[in-house]
Write a structure and sequence with these properties.
Blueprint (H helix, E strand, L loop, with lengths): L4 H7 L5 H6 L8 E3 L5 E3 L1 H6 L7 E7 L9 H14 L4 E5 L4 H5 L7 E2 L2 E4 L1 H5 L5 H21 L6 E6 L3 E3 L9 E3 L10 E3 L1 E3 L4 H8 L3 H9 L2 E5 L4 E3 H4 L2 H7 L7 E5 L4 E4 L14 H10 L2 E5 L4 H16 L5 E6 L1 H7 L12 H19 L5 E6 L6 H13 L4 E4 L1 H4 L5 H12 L15 H13 L3 E4 L1 H12 L7 E4 L19 E10 L4 E6 L18 E2 L5 E2 L3
Parallel strand pairs: 3-16, 3-17, 4-15, 4-16, 8-11, 17-18, 18-19, 20-22, 21-23
Antiparallel strand pairs: 1-2, 2-14, 5-6, 6-14, 7-12, 9-10, 12-13, 14-15, 22-23, 24-25
């Protein structure tokens, strides 16, 4: 009988975290233990490594996601385990899972099969409390905003133009739009408000882009919380909240160390959204890993048009990272869906559908190469894949002159990814990489959005609503024009219409609204119907999660 992910994880024999740390040369003095198998890394160690040369960074990204699943996190863990089997000093750098998706549709987010990070239950449920700390810091600011208005509103903040909502780390659609301040004069000033999920908070994006604690505090100070009656931005520094917020994040900023099933060191830290934010783990965890390991395998959220684009244009730009190679994950199942096959019919062999859907893969390969980063395709194998279907993907890769390898890391762990690892290492060790962002930072905001739409999505262009046009003009007047652009778009299509699968053509992207994340350091352009507070499905994953009298959890994926 096939074991579930959680059963595989629970059967694993983990090594004490100090033994995992020793593999990277970390002395126990720098570990702050959260039990036997989890630890935070002291900032003292992080700061002491500034002059040490970096290892080589490998990004794992994917084709446009479908409900069939791509296995990006599983591949990330699996290829790192394979690199370790090849005798190299390697570490993993991943995001922390949010409770919302764990309890909703997605389930756990720690990899799968025999390529997981453990302790799986802890990582998926609360972990070291980082996301809760982000929520506390965010909601402290929300409370201080309403208190400022209640206490006389010296900053002349317009209650109708407050952009700082509240957060909770759960999918809860009932909180999307609320009224606060009801109950009379003593209870505040009534106004419209709402909740986002915590991982959509700008505080989370800041935590993951900050280079150190001082940078974190400075970025928090720059957050725009709203606007005055005469259209001037009100920032956190004006409310004098940055110090207290940073104090709440003092522990959360420290990277977390755990391990994979094969005892490869894994840094799991931070978890911003990949559409409303940049969708990558923290800069500090990535930099720490690069100082301690010869190779670091990381990932970016959703497909390469979202996570990888923002990894290259935002994270690498701010952190000074120079990735040496990228791994692009594809599956026969997902390519068949992009080729027009419904999820219910995926079990029926159809190499022709794979070939049709492979246009999506081809576009993602082109996109990664536009950043000067060489790419290898990981064909994540499923038991239902036929030889003809797999050959169709590999043949396309040969035509595009891109290396490719079958990946069986879910079923076989690192052993199932040796061929993939060797190809990725060949790219990382070679001289092909010449990373560069897609656009210069000086380019006007509208031109940045148009360039991303044309070059990455394949759109004919971008249209802006009147609201978006006015918002962009205001932001440029306020001095925010020379920030990177973060496109908030559906993850299910290159377009802003989730129904357009494959490689759509002849479409335009509509930007309906813009927001500035001045602390994080980017301008968000919203397209389509992007939700910052998801809802639970009809049958949420939470219905299947349980814990027995001994504390053993079941049903978590």
């Amino acid at each position: 009988m096939m074991l579930s992910d959680i059963e595989i994880a629970q059967a694993a024999k983990m090594e004490p975290v100090d033994k995992i740390a020793a593999k990277l040369g970390i002395d126990e003095h720098y570990l702050e233990h959260y039990g036997r198998y989890k630890a935070k890394i002291s900032l003292e160690l992080y700061n002491s490594l500034a002059d040490k040369p970096d290892g080589k960074l490998i990004l794992v990204t994917a084709i446009t996601p479908t409900p069939a699943g791509e296995g990006k996190s599983t591949t990330t863990v699996g290829i790192a385990q394979a690199i370790a089997k090849l005798g190299r000093k390697v570490a993993v750098a991943l995001r922390e899972p949010s409770l919302g998706p764990c309890m909703g549709v997605k389930g756990g987010a720690a990899g799968g099969g025999y390529s997981q990070v453990v302790p799986m239950e802890d990582i998926n449920l609360h972990f070291t409390g980082d996301i809760h700390a982000v929520g506390a810091a965010h909601n402290l600011l929300a409370a201080m905003i309403d208190n400022h208005i209640q206490q006389g509103n010296a900053l002349n903040l317009d209650p109708r133009r407050i952009v700082w909502r509240r957060v909770v780390d759960m999918n809860d659609r009932a909180l999307r739009n609320i009224i606060v301040g009801l109950g009379g004069k003593a209870h505040g000033v009534p106004r419209e408000d709402g909740f986002d999920i915590t991982v959509a908070s700008e505080v989370m994006a800041i935590l993951c882009l900050a280079s150190d604690l001082e940078d974190l505090k400075n970025r928090l100070a720059n957050i725009v919380v709203g606007y005055t009656y005469d259209n001037r931005p009100v920032t956190v520094s004006m409310l004098k909240a940055q110090g207290a917020m940073a104090a709440l994040l003092r522990e959360a900023i420290k990277p977390n160390l755990v391990q994979t099933l094969e005892h490869v060191p894994a840094f799991i830290h931070g978890g911003p959204f990949a559409n409303i934010a940049h969708g990558c783990n923290s800069v500090m965890a990535t930099k720490l890993a690069l100082k301690l390991a010869d190779y670091v395998v990381t990932e970016a959220g959703f497909g390469a048009d979202l996570g990888a684009e923002k990894f290259f244009n935002i994270k690498c730009r701010y952190a000074g990272l120079k990735p040496r190679a990228a791994v692009l994950v594809a599956t026969v199942r997902a390519l068949k869906m992009h080729g027009g096959i419904t999820k219910a019919a995926l079990a029926v062999p159809d190499a022709a559908a794979v070939k049709r859907g492979a246009a999506n893969l081809a576009k993602h390969i082109e996109n990664v190469r536009k950043f000067g980063v060489p790419v290898v395709v990981a064909v994540n194998a499923f038991p239902t894949d036929t030889a003809d279907e797999l050959d169709a993907v590999l043949e396309l890769c040969r035509e595009l002159k891109v290396p490719a390898a079958l990946s069986k890391v879910w079923a076989e762990g690192g052993t199932g990814g040796l061929d993939l690892a060797e190809k990725a290492l060949a790219l990382a060790d070679g001289n092909q990489a010449a990373y560069q962002p897609l656009y210069p930072i000086e380019m006007p905001l509208k031109e940045k959005a148009a360039l991303i739409a044309r070059e990455i999505y394949g759109a004919d262009g971008v249209t802006f609503t009147k609201e978006a046009e006015a918002g962009i003009a205001d932001l440029e007047k306020l001095g925010y024009g020379q920030l990177p652009v973060c496109m908030a778009k559906t993850q299910y299509s290159f377009s802003d219409d989730p129904a357009l699968l494959g490689r759509p053509q002849g479409f335009t992207i509509t930007v309906r609204q813009v927001r500035v994340s001045a602390g994080a350091g980017f301008v968000v352009m919203l397209t389509g119907d992007i939700m910052t507070m998801p809802g639970l499905p009809k049958i949420p994953a939470a219905e299947n999660i349980d814990v027995d009298k001994n504390g053993r959890i079941s049903g978590l994926f």
